[in-house]
Amino acid sequence: MRPPVGNMFSSTWIVTPLFVTDLSTARTFAVKARDAGADAIELRCDRTEATVIEAVLRDPEIRRLKTILTIRPAWEGGGFTGSEAQRLELLRLACRYQPDLIDVEWKAWQNSAGFADVLAPCLMMPETWRASAATQRRAPGLIISNHDFVQRPADLHQRVAAMAAIPEATVLKVAFAAADINDAVAALTLYNQRSDFNDLPLVAIAMGEAGQISRLLAAKFGAAFTFAQLDAEAHSAPGQPPILTLMQRFRFKEQRADWRVFGLVGSPVSHSVSPMIHNAGFAQTGYAGVYVPLLTAPGYDNFIRAINGLRRLPGMNLGGVSVTIPHKSSALAYASEESGTIDPVARHIGAVNTLFFPPGGGIRAMNSDAAGAVAALTSGMGIKAEMLRDSDVAILGAGGAARAIVAALCELGARIAIYNRTPARAVELAQQFATGPGRIQARDIHDFSSSHHKIVINCTAAGMTPHVNDLPFPSDAKLYTDQIVFDTVYNPRRTRLLQMAQHSGATCVEGLEMLLSQAAAQFEGFTGQPVPSEAMRAAALDALGR
Ligand code: NAP
Fold it and tell me: 3-class DSSP state for residue 427?
């Protein structure tokens, strides 16, 4: 077997791609990329003149970053539409100006006439590439790449092994469209199989939102590099995070193999501020862990497949997950099936918003929504929870959040009226938690207009971004100065409902308070450390606006 390339990639590079048009734009971009924290620039020269390729590769400012040169043909998802002979000539020319690496498709290396024969003498062999690249520039190393924009290749492992068999290969790169999170798990699994691939540096990317952890956790799994956008507006590949997000939110440069991973399982998850909140807490306490979005399609089977795939991935070290719509009842069923320890509150509510996977094995399930809501409400009112006994509360909505809050308020002895757009769900919820005559009742949503409850809690999604103009009750309803209005929606912070409440002189309680409170309970369970509340609050305010 060939000797490994060495530790040129002792830390995972952040590579930012640029579609090269002219020297000046490329130089400006390179300066910004370096300032942002990129280690390397991928010069995408799919449509670039030969003279510009030369100028860019000779530019000292650009060469302060490591360089990868790519001329991607249309048949592999790129923009080069000339002949393979023309492309080969451009690549040969580019090699003269010594980019650190050139990227050539596995299929071209195998099938395009002359590619292997003409390019091999222009390249540095893998075993010498590292030492030379570290000291002085000479011939480039070779990335052998393969892309599938439709699906994960059925023969993924064999394919990468075949790529590794190319003697000139310095780095192997495989990228494919992810249908679900298990495709990201398949990509990360390849890092555990590097001995099958001659121990060559590897980049395995599951593209798209479902595959995002293959990028976010690339440093933890020891990838050669990962791609990141210079700014949030640039879109060169789906799921590619901005450099700053990767560095600051996911602490990419600090990630180590033994870090624990946490995440948010749900659909959708991209709107959530939980990654900002928890990662800020981890950073503040120096905790060796990272919290990532884990997009998981609806359905119990999808939930189980995702959780089991993540838990069983060697090296993943999954410490726990927050669970959101639509998986909270699936999480309860999963914890029961796995004989986990289920917090009585979660069992009573019938939903779980957090699963813990302790290092020693087993599962613990809890629901911190209920306690989080009560904490937000009582702190907003300046009272103790016991003082909610006999208080008159209107609950708007009858979904998961409503169920958690109704369960908690019933326990505290409040009198509850449930209003919901779909009346049958309000009736069902009222029946489930009925504690005694008159304590809890389902009311028609139109009755809300003539009601006057002491406390009004919105547990519907009405008013949440992007539907910011929606109200959870009929337009002729009024709010009053002596009321407490609590909106569990936190994005935006000041919902239309809270604006209306403020205008009426009512006391307002923001959903952000509930979010922070339930996240604090999760953080404590995840890390066993005291909660850095101020850092977590600051991260939420940064994300949602102060
Ligand atoms: P869910 O189980 O899907 O229930 C959604 C509820 O909202 C249902 O009662 C639904 O009524 C109602 N609804 C949806 N759109 C509506 C509209 N345009 N007008 C009136 N009613 C509408 O969701 P969930 O888990 O209960 O979450 C609901 C909301 O709670 C979320 O949007 C989230 O913002 C908030 N929440 C906040 C926190 C926090 O920490 N702050 C935690 C959890 C949830 P139907 O029954 O008629 O469909």
Answer: helix
